[in-house]
Structures are given as structure tokens and as C-alpha cells.
Amino acid sequence: MRILAFMLIAYTAVMLVIHVTSWKLLQKWAVPGDSWAKRWFPSQAALRVEAVYWLLALAIWPFWPSTGWKAVVVVFAVIHFGAWLVGERQSIREGPPSALPRKARRYIVVFDLIEAGALAAIAWLAVINLLHVG
Fold first, then answer.
1. In this predicted model, what pLDDT tens digit does every residue of 74-132 receive, in sequence order?
2. Which of 15, 77, 107, 124 falls 20 to 30 Å from 84 in CA-CA distance?
3. pTM for the whole thing?
4. What gap in Å lies between CA 110 and CA 130, rounded to an integer?
5. How far apart are CA 105 and CA 128, in angstroms?
6. Please, which contacts does 73-77 make with residues 24 or more away whose CB atoms are closer than 8 Å?
7. For residues 98 and 91, what is the distance between their CA atoms, to the nearest angstrom?
């Protein structure tokens, strides 16, 4: 389980970068034509990365110290699995997702900033409790 804790800490750093810069990614995905974000990190890939992260967070279930922490992990996991499945279904039916309206992008940025707070708390908890530091 210690290896999963190390993976969670490293993956959390990646997730924090994605969530703190999500406004820029959403902006690049919305631009017509080709962009580095559409080529190297399309929106569906971002949803997959997030779903795998929350799957990892669920995999270390026994280490979450309380029902409250477990609830946070489950809620975020359900939200991200749902978004990922909807995105996959849309990709199969309609091809790559089209640009989101500006208001939807704002909601996503706000949600991502809230999630960044949860990710920072998870990283802290992983370092303190999962690795038994301190």
C-alpha cells in the first residue's frame, strides 16, 4: 500500500497543475482550429486522467481516516466517473466534443478550484497519514 501512497502523492501534483490551470486549458480547447491543448491533451484525455486518479484514491480506501474523508473521495469519484462516461459516450456518438459555452467553462473553473482544495488536502493527508510522517 505504501507504493499506492507514493503514486497518489505524485499523481496529486499532476492533478493540481491541471486544476489550477484548467481555465487556460478550457480556453485553448474552445479556440477554433488546432491548438497544442487539442493535440497533446484533449478534453477527453483530461477526463480519463481524472477518472484514473479517483480510482487510485478509491484503491487506498482503508487508509482514509474517517467517514468524512471517504465521503469526499466517493463524491469526487462519482462526479468524475460520470463526466468521463458522458464524454466517452459523446465521443462515440458525435466525435470530439465541441466548445463549451462561456458560462459552462466558468462553472468548470470554479469546480476545479474547489477540487484543487480537496486535492491539496488529500496530498497533505497522504503525506501525514499514509506515509506515517511526523
1. 999 999 999 999 888 887 887 666 667 889 889 999 999 999 999 999 888 888 876 67
2. 124
3. 0.86
4. 29
5. 34
6. 73/122, 76/115, 76/118
7. 10
